[in-house]
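Lab notebook, bench 4. The sequencing result for the construct came back, and we need a structural model before the next group meeting so we can plan mutations. Quick request posted to the team channel:

Model the 3D structure of this chain.
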Amino acid sequence: MRRFQKVLAIETSCDDTSVAVVGHDGRVHSCVMAGQDLYHAKYGGIVPEIASRNHTHHLLPLIQEALDQAGIKLDEVDGFAVTSRPGLIGSLLTGLVTVKTLSVTAGKPFVGVNHLEGHLLAPFLTDAEYAPPQGFDFPYVALAVSGGHTTLYRVDGFGRYKVLGRTLDDAAGEAFDKFAKKIGLGFPGGARVDRLAALGNAARFEFPRAMLKDERDDMSFSGLKTSAARLFDELLDADRETILREAEEFLSTKQAKPGLLADLCASFQEAIVDVLVARLTRAATREKMERVVLTGGVAANSRLRARVVKWAKESGKTAAIPPLRYCTDNAAMVGLAGVIRLNLGETSPISLGPEPKAPLDQEKSPRG
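Done. Here's the predicted structure in token form:
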């Protein structure tokens, strides 16, 4: 029997605070989260100091809630897992200090986890409503795409990650947020663009698809972002006013409607999705992989999910895409990576510090 049956995990790499109780088999016994969108929206982006301060307010109540939902007490968990890398240094530090305190108090070990490893393992989580595709296992090609990272990996097993390509500038999620801010949708913008795009005409505006003919698997979204800003600035005054008015109406009513704004969102979104899907499909074909994973916060985008599912079905591939709750930053994925590492004999010292930048392909496997 595995020594570590259940762990309590904490994720505070950016602005979302999450706590989960996860079993050694990937079963999610509880996963709770507190967001901070309202705190950061007026600044047009995440303010690190505000993020870390809010983590301190949210963590203890969320820990109790996660334990209550799992139906266990703190002394019934076998160990702890925490995101220690990469991320905002203040946010990481808040989670680390909390877990170290729990570890010392309970007399049980903890392990620091790479947030990106959690995303790559998220498809293996299970709960009452989700399970990975039958028989899904290593190896696979994974596209991890979020506000801070957009990377293609070859995953040959736990702890065996090879970067095939990454964005050379802006991450896809960052491009979505900056575009949304430019056209009056505010922050965070990715989900708002997605909702409006569902009602828009993606052929209305033309945007570039960078590096599609490049033999590398790298990506670039800064040119797209610049192109969108220039297009908006060069529109007729009446069209710009229409877009801004429609954005204001959407934010006040929360109702998406067809129109110029929806067309602009659909066109921009399609450009990003075209690049991401092209990179994923080419990498899977070249690597001769029958299984692919789409994960990370931008994997919540409905158009991207639908395109990957459609391609996988048509090409006979198996696509594993976690549900939305396990795509965004969450402690369940951290718990799974943590419980595996703990059962392989890895623990972290009390001196462990945060690492704001930590490439996943440089991680050491606990098995050597």
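The two ends are 22 Å apart (CA to CA).
Will bring this to the meeting.
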